[in-house]
Amino acid sequence: MKTFTYERASTPAEAAAASARTPGAKFLAGGTNLLDLMKLEIEAPQHIIDIGKIGLNKIESTPTGGLRIGALVSNTNLAAHPIVRRDYGLLARALLAGASGQLRNKATTAGNLLQRTRCPYFYDTNQLCNKRVPGSGCAAIAGFSRQLGIIGTSTSCIATYPGDMAVAMRALDATVETVKANGAKRTLSLDQLYRLPGQTPHLETTLEKNELITTVVLPPPVGGVHIYHKVRDRSSYAFALVSVGAILKKDGTGRVAVGGIAPRPWRIESAEPLLPSGAKAFTAQLLKGARPTKENEFKLALVERTLAAVLNEAKH
Amino acid sequence: MKFETPAGTNPIDQLKVIGKPTDRIEGPLKTTGTATYAYEHNDEVTNPAYGYVVGAGIAKGRIKAIDQTKAKAAPGVLAIVTAASAGPLKTGQFYVDRLLAGPDIDHYHQAVAVVVAETFEQARAAASLLKISYTKTKGAFDLAAAKDSAPLIKQGQFSPPPTTNVGNFEGAFASAPVKLDETYTTPDQTHAMMEPHATIAKWDGDKLTCWASIQQINWGVRDIATVLGIPKENIRLISAFIGGGFGGKGTVLSDIIAAALAARAAGRPVKVTLPRPLIANNTTHRPATIQRIRIGATPDGTITAIGHESWSGNLPGGISETATAATRLLYAGANRFTQLRLAVLDLAEGSAMRAPGEATGMMALEIAMDELAEKLTMDPVAFRIKNDTQEDPGKPGRKFSSRKLVECLQTGAKQFGWNKRQAKPGTVREGQWLIGMGVASAIRGAPILKSAARVRLSREGIVTVETDMTDIGTGSYTIIGQTAAEMMGISLDKVVVKLGDSTFPESPGSGGQWGAASATSGVYAACVKLREAVANSLGVSLEEAEFVGGQVRGGNRSYPLGDAAKATELVVQDEMTYGTLSREYAQDAFGAHFVEVGVNSYTGEIRVRRMLAVCHAGRILNPKAARSQVIGAMTMGVGAALMEELVVDKQVGFFVNHDLAGYEVPVHADIPHQEVVLLEDLDPTMSPMKAKGIGELGIVGVAAAVANAVYNATGIRVREYPITLDKLIGKLSING
Ligand SMILES: Cc1cc2nc3c(=O)[nH]c(=O)nc-3n(C[C@H](O)[C@H](O)[C@H](O)COP(=O)(O)OP(=O)(O)OC[C@H]3O[C@@H](n4cnc5c(N)ncnc54)[C@H](O)[C@@H]3O)c2cc1C
Ligand code: SF4
Question: How large is the ipTM?
Fold first, then answer.
C-alpha cells in the first residue's frame, strides 16, 4: 500500500469539493473493495476522503411512491428495509445473495454500484491487464476466462461487472443522483453510468473525477413476482457465474436483467416483449452478438436455462 | 520401549478417560483468542521488524537485475535480502524447492527477495518498489502435454516402486468378460488452511529461535539446519498452535528461511507471514493427476484384473502423487498392475495434502468401481463387498491387522437408506431437482512411527507431558492428555500437555495420519516408566500398584500420586519404537461414504443434501475429536468433488486463482447434513493404544461418492474433477 493523506468530509458538497482540491483523491465508503485494492496497489490514491459521515444514510419514500436510497445506506439495512422487502423483493434478494453478512454490514449502496471487476488477472499485478495498466494487454482473453464476460466485452477486456445489487437495480429502472465539485447535480440511468470497455477498459463509469453519488432512486414498485437466481459453484459467498434478476407478471410479460456476463448488468429492453415466448426466444435476442471464449461459452446456455428455471419458478 | 508383539490388556483398556468424547483442553484458549500462533509471540519478541516476501513475477527464467535503490530509500526499510546477499543455501530433505531463488527462477512466486522494515506496511510498500527485471525462458506447465514423455518414478522414501505386477494383468484383462477402461483427471489443489505460513525468527549469537507454523518439528529442525548450513543444536523451533496444515506445512518453507535470513541481516528479530495470494504458487500443493483405470470381472462380479496407472508432474526431483496406493490393497483380484509416471513441470512444488495418494487415487478408482458395477448390473455396495479381501492382495498370506470394510459398507447402507436408491440414473425428481445417491469405499494407510515423550510428576500430583508433537487443530493436546491421565489414574484436569517445541523429546509430528497413534504411544511408553518411578518412590511393588482416582494403591496402602514426588519432581522420558508387525500385517484404516445430492436440471447446480461416513480406524481415542476430523475431511472431499481446482494458466505458467476468492472451498451452506459412525475396533498390532489414524481417512472416497451420486441423479458421468455445472449443462434435460 502506498502512503496517502486522509480527511473526513461532513457534507456531500464538501466531499466533492475536497476531491477537486486534491489530485488523486478517492472517496472511501465501506472500504470493502477500495481498501483491498489499495493493499494490492491496484488502486493507489494519494488522498482519501472518508464519506462515512456525510449523512446520506436514509431511505425515504418519494412523493410519487418510489424510494430514495442514500448512497451510504448499508447493504444490510437496505435489504432489511420493510418497504424494500415488500415492494422491491428483487432488490432485497439480490443484496442477500451477495458477499457475506459481515461485508454487507460495511458495504454501502454507492460503493456496491462502483465495485470493480473480479477478473483474477486484474488482481495479480504481475499479469498483463489493460484495465489496470492501460495498453499493457489482456492476459485473460487467452487465459482463464471461465467467469468472465460473453457480451458487451471488447478485444481489450472481457471482464464483468461482478455485483448483484446493480442487477436488481437495473431491472427496477433505478437512477443515480450525483453532485459534482462545482455543486452541479445530475441524474443517470445505470446504462448511462456504466461504460462498456471498448479500447479503454480502465474507464468503467461516466462519473467525472470528483463526482459523488448521493442517492439511488427507485421508481414506484411494479408488482409481479420478483426472483433473483444466482448461479455459482458453491451455495454462498461467491460471485455469480450467471445471475438472473426478473420481475414477471401473471401474463408472462416482465423485465429481466442478467449479471455475471457483461461489463455491466445486462438488460435489453427491446428483447423483453419476447419473454412470453419463453427463455429461448428471449435469450437469443438478449445475447445477440455475444462473443464468449471457449472457456465461458457455457454461459450462453446457462443464461437461457437459468431464465427458464426462473420462468418455471414464477409459475408455481 | 519396543513394541514387538500384539498388545495385551493394559491400563489404556480401562477407558476411564480414553475413548470419552472430551472437549478440547486447549479449546478455551482458542475460542478466547489467547492461544499464541506463530505470528503472535509478542511477549517473547517485543521488538520485531517485519519481512515481506517478494515472489517471482515470471514462471521460469532468470533474474537479470534487481534494482533496490528506491526500496532501500523507502521509509522504515532496514534490510533487503536476496539470493545474492544470502550466501549459499541448500534445499531441505523433503521439499525440493529452493526457498530463496535467484538468479534462476523455477516457478511463479518463488521467493526472490525479503524486504525488512520497521512495520509490515512499510515492508510491503517498499517491496513493491523493488525493480526486478527478468529473462523469461520457456517452461512446461501442461501435464496432459507432458504425459506421454513422462518417465517412471524413482523409488524412494516417499515413493513406492514405479511398477507393481501380480499375476498376468494384461492377459486377464484382455480375456475378462466384463471390463472397464477409463481415464480420470484430478486437478491441482491448495491446502487453503486458515492460518497462513508464518514465522518469527530471532538470533542470539549463532543460536536461532523460530516460532513457526510447522507440522513436523523434527523435519523442521533438520531442514533449517540443512538449508542454512548451521548445526541442528543451534536451532530451537516452536510451534505450539497451528491454524491448520493439511500437509501444507510439513517442513520448512520460504517464510522460515526468509525470517531467519532477514533477522540476521537486520540484526533483530523478524516476523514474516506469507500473504494469501502468494501461498498457492510459492508453497506446495496437491498435484494434478491423469489416471487410467482398467478393471476386468466375471459376470458374477468377481474382479479378475485390476490395473491403475497415474501420471503427475513436479519440479525436478520432486515426489509423485502416489495415486495407485489404494488400488494395491483395496479389492481382491488375482491379476494386478500399477504404475506411476512423473513429468517435470515448472509449477510450484507438488507434495503432500491430506491423504496424499489415496485421496487422489480413490477419486478415480471409486468412480471406476461404480461404472463397472453398472456394467455388471450389480448394486455398487454389493459389488464392493463381493471383492473384499482379508489379506494384502499383492502379498498373499499377509493379513490385514483389522479390516471391516464390509461392515462399514453394510452399516452405512442401512443407516443411509441405500435401499431407496434407484439403480437407473436420472429417475428421481423433486421439482427442478434431480436426486441421486452415491457410495464409495475408503482406505488409508495407518503408519505408526517411533515417538518419544517426557513426563513429569509434581508433588501436587500434576502430570506434565512434553513432546514435540504438534496439534494442527486435530486434538493432539487432548488425546495426549487423555493418555497420560488414563495411564496415571488421574483425571484430565490434572494433566498439563506441552507440545511443539524442539527442546521436547522427538515425535514424528502431524502428517501421514500417523500423529495420534504414534504420539500417544510415545506418551504411553513414558508413562509406563513414570509408573515404575512412582512405585519405586513410594516403595510399592510395581506388580501390585494400582493407579486409580489420583491414588496409588499397593501393599494394603493408598498414597496420593503426588506423594511420589514429595522430595523431588519425578521426570522420566521414553520412546516407543516398533518391530516388524507393520511388515507382517497390512495396517490400514477403512471406511465407507454415502452421499445424496440434488442437481438442478435447469442450471446444473449441484448441492449435497446429506452425507454419511462409517469409519473403522482402531480404537477411537476421543470420539468427539475423531468425528471433527472426519466431518472436516468429508467437507474437504466435497470441495474436491465440486469446486476445488488451482487453475493452471498454461501460457503464463502459474495457478491463476491464487486467493480464497478465486479458489473456492465449501462454505457452511454447502454442507447441510453430515453423520459419522465410528465402528468399534481395537487393533493390537498397532501399539498398546490399539489405535490408528483417522484424520486423513475421512477424505478418502468422498469425492467419488459425490461424483457417483451426481451420476445417479443425472445419468451424466463426469471423469474430470471438479464436477462443475458447465460439465453437465449441455447434457442435462430440463424437467420440473
Ligand atoms: C470477499 C468478498 C465477497 C464479495 N462478494 C460479493 C458478491 O457476492 N456480490 C456482490 O455484489 N458483491 C460482493 N462483494 C463486493 C461488495 O459488495 C463490495 O465490496 C461493496 O459493496 C463495496 O461497497 P463499499 O461501501 O465498501 O465500497 P468502497 O470500497 O468504499 O468503495 C468502492 C468504490 O466506490 C467509490 N465510492 C464509494 N462511495 C461513493 C460515492 N458515494 N460516490 C462516488 N464514489 C463512491 C470508492 O471511491 C471506490 O472506488 C464482495 C466483496 C468481498 C470483499
Ligand atoms: S479481462 Fe479486463 S480486467 Fe481481466 S485481464 Fe483482461 S483487461 Fe484486465
Answer: 0.97
